[in-house]
Design a protein that fits this description.
Elements: H1 35-38, H2 43-57, H3 61-95, H4 100-111, H5 117-129, H6 131-138, H7 146-178, H8 182-227, H9 230-235, H10 240-245, H11 253-277, H12 286-291, E1 317-323, E2 327-332, H13 339-350, E3 356-361, H14 379-398, E4 403-407, E5 412-413, H15 418-424, E6 429-432, E7 443-444, H16 459-463, E8 470-473, E9 475-476, E10 479-483, H17 507-517, E11 522-525, E12 531-532, H18 543-560, E13 584-589, H19 594-606, E14 612-615, H20 624-629, H21 649-668, E15 672-676, E16 680-682, H22 686-699, E17 706-708, H23 736-752, E18 768-770, E19 779-783, H24 784-792, H25 802-809, H26 816-819, E20 829-832, E21 837-839, E22 855-857, E23 860-865, H27 873-887
Amino acid sequence: MGRSGCSESAFRPPHPAEPRVSQDPPCGARGEGDPGQCLPPSAEVQGALECCLRRRVDAQLPRVTQTLLDMVEAALAAVQTLLAQGMDRLDRHLRGNPSGARLRKEVYAFGEMPWDPELMQACYREAERSRGRLEQLVVPFGFLGAQSLVFEAQDLAQQLMADAVATFLQLADQCLTRALDCHQAAQQLEKVRGRVLKKFQSDSGSARRRFVRGWQLCIFLPFVLSQLEPRCKAELLELEGDILAVGSPALTVEGIYEDVIRGVLRQRIDGELKKALGASDASCTLDSCSEDPWDQAGADSLPGSPKRTVDVSATFVEVAVFIGETGGRVATDHNSDNTTAVLREWLVAVKNLYHSVEWRPAEEPRSYQDEEGPKHWSDARYEHVMKLRQAALKSARDMWADYILFVDADNLILNPDTLTLLIAENKTVVAPMLDSRAAYSNFWCGMTSQGYYKRTPAYIPIRKRDRQGCFAVPMVHSTFLIDLRKAASRNLAFYPPHEDYTWAFDDIIVFAFSCKQAEVQMYVCNKEMYGFLPVPLRSHSTLQDEAESFMHVQLEVMVKHPPAEPSRFVSVPTKMPDKMGFDEVFMINLKRRQDRRERMLWALWAQEIKVRLVEAVDGKAMNTSQVEALGIQMLPGYQDPYHGRPLTKGELGCFLSHYNIWKEVVEKGLKKSLVFEDDLRFEIFFKRRLMNLMRDVEREDLDWDLIAMNTSQVEALGIQMLPGYQDPYHGRPLTKGELGCFLSHYNIWKERMQVEHPEKAVPRVRNLVEADYSYWTLAYVISLQGARKLLAAQPLSKMLPVDEFLPVMFDKHPVSEYKAHFSPRNLRAFSVEPLLVFPTHYTGDDGYVSDTETSVVWNNEHVKTDWDRAKSQKMREQQALSREAKNSDVLQSPLDSAARDEL
């Protein structure tokens, strides 16, 4: 997973300013996610393109490159001279023991330098001198934007000047505030001067590369497109599907065509630019800066980090938020997506909100040489992350920051008081405990003598918040705060590893060892809910897996909290919801349950699932006359299996809601439909897994009527706990996770004895079994044939709850008396295994509300019903299943690193 900081909504700066409006880059300066860079053109197009480039472009490319470089370098050199002269003047005035009024006047004059037309004339003249030579070079290509190009170079130089001046003034203010006298302040300003100039040179190197690349594309791309024969465009029709499959925003052949040509041309331009710069390129790459980083001077102003959306798979990002001086560091590298473009867009919009920033993008390389995939943590990746963290730590120390907060890019910090709460703990290293869909979190409670994770009985009570407080632990990671005011923090380091280090080469273990050697205790706090983090993916996972995993974290957040909205400073791609191949997707919701409706609609929209809202029948609002008019009669002898009560009006309304959908399916002839209730939570990769399942079902031509996504076979297996058993550590009964572990071994024993498993798997259809008794109807797929069978049973005249009726119809209900009233019981029902949905709340959970159980008896409004917390067997079974849901692992393979295992 990439790494980055918290949302700007979580940590607002103390004095926000109006964000600057982003300036659009030159035409053709696309982000890193161009399809032209990831999909080569066909041989036909490649041949024509190479011919055009050799004959018409290659001869001019070096001269145009050098002219553009000369123009921008001359302008930047003039600005650097002005900047140095201005800082020198301030230094001389300070050493001359000036009055406060005179010094303030000089500081004000220095701050106005970038906007002084007379001073900036030198920069303007240098850029203008190259205009004539440039126009002569580009006339053959039909380029008429030379004047705009000159203005862009001037604006770039002026903006870099303004950023450098702002950086100097911020650090100068610190010096003047802390210095004891003018002499000491002058000494400190001399150091600041060097740092600012070094930072300016590095920023200039990155800026000139972007400037030259962008304008070369503006000059050459339209010309190349106009020279290629029309038949080349036709060759790209066969590539359209492949490009769209990898996530290109291009929706037309023309767009694909241009993107492919751009990618090839950009490779040519980058090669020429690299040759032109050669060894003289003084710009700082991330790798070199990791070894010898800039001293943090706060180039641009920014908040903590962007909030990634599901459509933005921001990989390999490292952000450290400098608290105290409200500055930040953003470094991004090894990206195979559009991370850099997203971060840049966000930073430009918000940088004025903070005092200082380091922005360290590196477009190449796109991967590590020793990696197996984008999610593989190779030794090179571990080392690089350590160097990035160390560079950030050093920069924070150099700028005299009081605190530094590290936050991984995929961590969602939801509590706006997180920073204040961590600072109040007064610990050298302290982390907020983050929640996830499993037992995984950002701390360990135990560590082996080799530095690996060790299970301890202390972990689960902390993770579940059965014990609350701040606890001393051997490891925290992903999100944590370091108090740089404490002397002990001076001995902490991320890289290089301690000279006595012999454990696994893993960034979080290396830092934990550093804390141990420095005698700094790590702490994790769980007093409040702070935020969420995803469960780590496997090394073979893809960027699409990562995007969906992060989206699932957002869905989990919404179960008990408001949705984590994307930053308003980031352009979010338009969602394209679809019905996943179903004729209709229904979502049942009571009109008075607006909170559930909004959560479900947001969750379905996030997964790009197009749904039709169906207003549920409110059984509580139905009177006896309405019930009788529908011909509804309760099944003779029916009693709720948990409470011994008859049917409730809530259950009646629930049944009618499903019944109305079955009627619509038949009336409209819908061959296959998907039905959701509004109180479910989705498993990770829900949409993909369901679509794959339905493809397998169709491929095998399976005869099916209903496919349930949330059945439970606990009772069907005849499982009973050993009387009197209690866990020796927690005093609790057997958990569903322990039950699953036992059954895994039990099934192996059964296979060896060739004993048939009660849950019969469907041949050649993965993750599908024959359905067994269940008490949930959260989500299911129903066919036209299945809906006809359900209606033919005439259930209104012998009604029982819908989740009891369905098992009767596929002849798996354990009560034979109920089944005797229905014939035939030939519903072809199947169940997904592992499950794809779970309830948002289990019986007895905080926030648990039931419209079916908290109701009145169906034929007597004076007899109220409710569940009993103390006696509810259903609650105990669902609590066990809840633990299974939270600890289930869809990927079903061990994590690659013990450093990230707490499942």
